[in-house]
Amino acid sequence: MSLILFALGWSVAGYIFLGMMFAAALAAILGYCIGCTIYFQFKQFRARQLNRE
Where does the DUF4395 domain lie (predicted)? Predict the structure, then answer.
């Protein structure tokens, strides 16, 4: 995606996307699972919603 943005001349957007990809790759290398975190937060949100009712 960043390659496409660079080809279109949108270098700032390309660098932003490149930075996001680098951060995601670094997190994966360090063993941090973004999907697991989102799933855990979603389950906590659902539990709070059910306890309110």
Answer: 2-44
d(CA 48, CA 41): 11
Interatomic CA distance for residues 34 and 16, integer angstroms: 19
Confidence of residue 22 (pLDDT cuts 50, 70, 90): very high
Quick check: 15 and 5 in contact, CB under 8 A?
no
Q: In whole numbers, what is the pLDDT of the chain averaged over residues?
A: 90
The whole-model pTM stands at 0.59
Q: List C-alpha distances in Å: 43 to 9, 20, 35, 37, 48.
A: 41, 25, 12, 10, 9
